[in-house]
Sequence to fold (198 residues):
Amino acid sequence: MMSSRTSRAVALGAATLLLVVGCGTDIPVEEPLPFPTQHADAAATPSGAPSAGPPEDLWPGGMGPYLIGASLTDLEADGLIASAAPADDCPERILAKGMEEYDTPTLAFRDGKLIYLMVDTPLARTAEGARVTMSLNAIRKRHPDGERLTGGPAGPAWFVTEEGKGLLFQLDSAGRVTSIEAGTVEMLRTRYKTGKGC
Fold:
């Protein structure tokens, strides 16, 4: 049985909670920060192969089944490629489209391996909740350890790296994200500086 002192403390705590919940806020919030989720390759399947994350979980290593370094042949065999053709500006590079259920990412392959992917839809998100159309300020809140890049032909970008791979958030003149690319750090820096991925 609770003492009278404990009963009063519980009642006071409940009253305080009701007051806090009942009070609104006039401070605008662009989007709440979600709890981080596990990366697609953080949990291995029983066979030891990386398990694919949910379609919206975009991270430096790829998205869903489209992992950087994945084989074009294997992805085609698994029915995960909608179309593929040599790039106009770089014949040794194959550009492909992923499946709609994975937000139709643009996929780039060289020597049969996935070297980077790009999404330009707000349906795809990082594990931290960053997506296309967000402001740079919102992206920095979710990925604070990045760096701002300038001087590229497409304008400024926010660049996040993790163990040799990265996420490149391309920005428009208003400072909003127009696309997100995942790939190796070297490839994404080249893509940013030249606009190509050869």
In short: Confidence is low (pLDDT under 50) at residues 1-54. The radius of gyration is 22 Å. The chain is about 20% helix and 30% strand. The first helix runs from residue 4 to 22.
